[in-house]
Amino acid sequence: MKEETSQKPKLKLAVYWGAACGGCCVSVLDVHEKLLDVIAAADLVFWPIALDIKYKDVEAMPDKYIDVTLFNGAVRNSENEHIAKLLRQKSKVLVAYGSCAHMGGIPGLANFTTKEAIFKRVYEESESTVNPDKIFPQTHFDVDEGTLELPTFYNDVRSLNQVVDVDYYLPGCPPQSERLLEVFTLIATGAPLPPAGSVVGASEKTQCDECKRTKTENKKVKRFYRPIDIKDDGVTCFLEQGVICMGPSTRAGCGVRCIVGNAPCRGCYGPSEAASDPGAKMLSAIATMIDSNNEKEIEKVVETIDDPAGTFYRFSLPSSIIRRTIV
Predict the structure, then answer these.
(1) Rg of the chain's alpha carbons, rounded to an integer?
(2) 307 exposed, middle or buried (CB, 10 Å; 0-12, 13-18, 19+)?
(3) Rounded to an integer, what distance in angstroms lies between the CA atom of residue 252 and that of residue 256?
(4) Beta carbons within 8 Å of 74's beta carbon, 6+ residues apart
(5) Separation CA 163–CA 47 (nearest Å)
(6) Helix, strand or coil for residue 95?
(7) Quick one: which of 20, 27, 213, 237 has the fewest CB in 10 Å?
(8) pLDDT for the residue numbered 20
């Protein structure tokens, strides 16, 4: 008589897309044939872009029904906030997946302005807009069939942990698929997990620690350039060539893929443990590089940095010490 073998129950996995570009959802598919291993270990119970499952179906789930939720995207509007709170209630493990959920991401650059200014530009002033009646989006509009509703557009973009408690952060824009597989395998096998609140799928080192480009101890520059304004030699540290590279303030874990592809790091993996604010860390690093002690000359060098706020806080403004401009 054959012995009956008990099969380990499959995990229940959810993926949600907030204020983001969709790249994080694509990265889930970028595990390629390893997707079969994921499917063997987990059932997808909620993924709006891929499955016909409604919010009401999630609301009907028991609390903690979902084993792991990958929440990608920032919280930009009332719908994002509602689903963040709902998925926190329904999930055992909630992962801030990607730069936008982790730090606010590219959508978070909107915190350099206001909701009113954004709406005015988009619905009144843009070159392609014809809106003589100055009609703006309404959250409620009555038609014969009923009331149409739009989410409320918030003034501030927030990272996921500014709305709900987050168990883990898996950084990147998007996260490297190999790191996703590592983290998923860890959870699926029941291996001991890091302490709650940990950044997973990344390294404690910085990008500079893993970068193979040639560096000198005392970097000195007389001006800065956009990458398109110089010819990269493919060997020398970008910063030493005068190109802003966020390597000193950015956590490693992506395999320095941008730098290997001859593009400077933009900071999507977030700050290392030693740099709580990536923008402040970069300002400090750049201050040591300017080849002058003359105040006016230093000002001229600083003026050659194109879009310093958008460069230093490209992915991290909502979670930085600045968070937004003063309204």
Answers:
(1) 23
(2) exposed
(3) 7
(4) 18, 19, 20, 80, 100, 101, 104, 105, 107, 108, 157, 158, 159, 160, 318
(5) 20
(6) strand
(7) 237
(8) 94
* Beta bridge pairs of residue 326: none
Closest alpha carbon to 206 in 293, 154, 260, 278: 278
Closest C-alpha to 70, from 45, 93, 42: 93
Contact between 55 and 83 (Cβ < 8 Å): yes
CB 249 within 8 A of CB 278: yes
pLDDT one-digit tens code per residue, 131-189: 999 999 999 999 999 999 999 999 999 999 999 999 999 999 999 888 888 888 888 88
Residue 87: C-alpha distances to residues 13, 63, 156, 294, 311 (Å): 11, 9, 21, 55, 32
Residues 286, 247: Cα–Cα separation, whole Å: 12
CB 34 within 8 A of CB 61: no
In sign, the C-alpha dihedral spanning 309, 310, 311, 315 is positive
* Whether pLDDT at 301 is above 60: yes
Encoding tokens for residue 3?
A: 């012995």
Q: What would the pLDDT profile of 93-118 be if each residue is shown by its tens digit?
A: 999 999 999 999 999 999 999 999 99
Could you tell me the two tokens for 43? 């059932």
Give the tokens for residue 15. Answer: 């993926």
Amino acid, res. 196: A
Give domain limits for the chain: 11-106+155-199, 114-154, 207-319
Question: What is the pLDDT, as a whole number, of residue 327?
Answer: 65
β-partners of residue 206 are 251
pLDDT at position 5, please? 47
Architecture of domain 11-106+155-199: 3-Layer(aba) Sandwich (3.40)
Residues contacting residue 264 through CB under 8 Å, at least 6 positions apart: 227, 238, 243, 244, 245, 246, 247, 258
